[in-house]
Structures are given as structure tokens and as C-alpha cells.
Design a protein that fits this description.
single chain; alpha/beta; Rossmann fold; eight-stranded mixed β-sheet; two-stranded parallel ribbon; 12 helices; about 40% helix; globular
């Protein structure tokens, strides 16, 4: 069902139809993947049409999609996304999928050369589908200033994916006095979610999606309020897990606060995906990560699903593991205290 059965000539003939008559809705389980909200060509009506054929046709359509007319005669705007950690691992796999499906993707990374190379690769000679943004997420003043510029340039945003994360072998402190793992993994994501709420509220079916961890590690209260900056006994693994846990716990709070504004907020466990999370770790830990990566996937199935699936519109406050949702159910008082600490740390950094 998901195979590639159509030749290039057949696909070319299909995608050369008037764009107002083309929009793909296809998934091998019978649900829909919407390419654009115009009239749909449904795969079950196309003899021998497989999922890979749909994907290939979407890529062939991408250069023309900016000209899709809407009923009022004005060009139909792309959906837009902002992805942090978009130059490697989980983030890059999601950036690729979104760009190929017709979403205009702004993606954040720290490495200028790599980011620009990815931008050139994805854009090619066609209508641009993405833009790289260099930003140090550990500097919260810079994150705030970026968010203010971004929302003036992009008044409507459909998707914010907070994927960036680090694991550091030795404790580092930012110039703003915050432990670096906490700043990148949790505080920057919270700050972006807060500052970009206005354009998200204007976007249709908007979503905030936070990368999380294995349920056994992140679903139990574990944040040490007496050692917020991991001063007492630092462990890179502990700092990474605790900071991701904090982001996951406040995913539930953000979901509750933003529900009335039409913004869904969820988290996802990416699974075992090749990434550079262990790049800073010393030998032999770095060797362990390198060997383990051989057996890891190149893309996060759950990350792509929560980013694109129309089946979860209106679903909020969940942790997705693959395609299964697990309700986030942290105690209110714990989340309230964590929210207050988060707001306080950000306020100290940016003022």
C-alpha cells in the first residue's frame, strides 16, 4: 500500500493539473495528510497510487505551491513553522519533513556554515521553503530580542517546535548567571513559547511542541528546587534529564493556559534517533554514543507525527510516544512552583 508504483511521467501529468484542483490527502491507514486546503485528490481514487508516490508528487509540486489560489483569488499563504535545534538530529529530520510537505520552515541553530548549507540544500533552485537563523539559545536576552523581531516579521505562526538540547560533561554557566543546560533545554523553550504566543494565536490550528524524554524519566516530579543550577553535585546526564523534565511539566501548564487561544501544546519522546546530544561528552562516553548511533533511526517518527498529523488537532497537554498520547498529570502545586522559578530565572536574566 505504501510502495512506489507510479512512474515519473504519470506523476508529472498529475502535478501539471491546475493547482486549484490539487491537494494530496493520503496515509496508508486511511487518514489524511493535507498538503494544502484546496480541493483534494484522494489517493484511494488513484489506481495503484502508493504513499511513496504521494511523497514524490508533493516534492514535485513544492516549487509551484506559492501560487496556489484561494477562493477569494489571493495567493494562499504557506503554513509557517519555527524549529529550534534544526541543524542536526531530531530537529533536522523534522525540518526536512515539514519543508517537503509545503510548510515554510524557519530553523534555528548555532553553526552558521552548517545551517546555511542545509538551507541551500532544501531550497535548491525552487521557491524557498526554509530559512536558517543563527541564535545562541543559552543567552536569554538574545532569545527575547529575536522573538520580538520574529513576531514583527512573521505575524502568523502555525508551529513552534522546541527541539534544541545539550548534555554537557562539565558544569557551565552562561554570561547571565544560569546553568547552561537549564538555559538551553528548558528556559529558552519556555521564553520562546511565551513571547511567540501572539503570532501562534493568529495561526490556524497552531501548535507548540516540546521535545521530551522517556516517560520513566520525565513523568515523575524530580526537579530539585534547592539545587536549581546543579551546583551541589553536577552530572551532565542528570542536568539534561531534569531540565527536559521541567520543560515537560510546564507543557501541561502551557496547554491549560493557551487552550482558550486555540493553541495546542504537547510534548513528544523522539525515541532512539541519531543526534549530536553526546558530542560534548568525554571519552569513553562519547564512544558509547557513537556506537549506539549506528543502531538509531535517522528520523523521529513521533516528532514528525505530532508536527503534521491532522488527527490530533485539538489534542493538548499530552506526551506522545510514537503515535500514542499519554496525558501529562503533574500535581498543580508542583507545576505552580516550577512555573514561578522559571519566570524568576528568566526575569533575572533579561532585565
Amino acid at each position: 500500500m505504501g510502495g512506489s508504483r507510479w512512474g515519473r511521467a504519470q506523476l508529472q501529468q498529475l502535478v501539471q493539473q491546475p493547482l486549484r484542483a490539487i491537494s494530496f490527502s493520503y496515509q496508508d491507514d486511511g487518514s489524511e495528510i493535507q498538503f494544502s486546503p484546496s480541493v483534494k485528490v484522494r489517493a484511494p481514487h488513484l489506481h495503484g497510487f502508493g504513499l511513496n508516490d504521494a511523497r514524490r508528487a508533493l516534492r514535485m509540486l513544492a516549487p509551484r505551491c506559492s501560487a496556489i489560489p484561494c477562493p477569494g483569488g489571493q495567493p494562499m499563504a504557506h503554513k509557517s513553522a519555527l524549529v529550534t535545534g534544526g541543524t542536526s538530529g531530531v530537529g533536522l529530520s523534522i525540518v526536512r519533513e515539514l519543508a517537503q510537505s509545503g510548510v515554510y520552515v524557519h530553523f534555528i541553530g548555532t553553526h552558521q556554515e552548517r545551517g546555511k548549507r542545509i538551507e541551500r540544500e532544501l531550497n535548491g533552485a525552487r521557491t524557498p521553503v526554509c530559512k536558517f537563523i543563527q541564535l545562541d539559545l543559552s543567552r536569554l536576552r538574545g532569545v527575547r530580542d529575536f522573538a520580538h523581531r520574529f513576531r514583527s516579521e512573521v505575524p502568523e505562526l502555525n508551529l513552534l517546535l522546541n527541539v534544541a538540547g545539550v548534555m554537557l560533561p562539565k558544569r557551565q554557566e552562561t554570561s547571565e548567571g544560569i546553568e547552561k543546560t537549564l538555559a538551553i533545554n528548558h528556559l529558552s523553550a519556555f521564553l520562546l513559547s511565551r513571547e511567540l504566543t501572539p503570532p501562534l494565536a493568529k495561526g490556524s490550528h497552531a501548535r507548540i511542541i516540546n521535545v521530551s524524554g522517556a516517560p520513566a524519566q520525565v513523568l515523575k516530579p524530580r526537579f530539585d528546587f534547592e539545587d536549581i543550577h546543579f551546583d551541589k553535585k553536577y552530572s551532565g546526564i542528570r542536568a539534561a534529564i531534569d531540565s527536559v523534565h521541567a520543560k515537560t511539566a510546564l507543557t501541561q501548564s502551557l496547554a491549560e493556559k493557551l487552550r482558550s487561544r486555540g493553541i495546542d501544546v504537547n510534548a513528544f519522546y523522539p525515541g532512539l534517533v541519531k543526534s549530536e546530544l553526546g558530542r560534548h561528552m568525554p571519552f569513553p562516553m562519547s564512544l558509547v554514543f557513537a556506537i549506539a548511533s549506528i543502531f538509531m533511526s535517522k528520523a523521529s517518527e513521533s516528532g514528525i507525527y505530532v508536527s503534521q498529523s491532522p488527527n490530533i488537532e485539538g489534542v493538548t497537554g499530552q506526551l506522545f510516544v510514537k503515535k500514542r498520547a499519554r496525558p501529562l498529570n503533574f500535581e498543580h502545586g508542583y507545576r505552580k512552583r516550577l512555573w514561578g522559578v522559571t519566570e524568576d530565572l528568566i526575569a533575572r536574566a533579561i532585565t
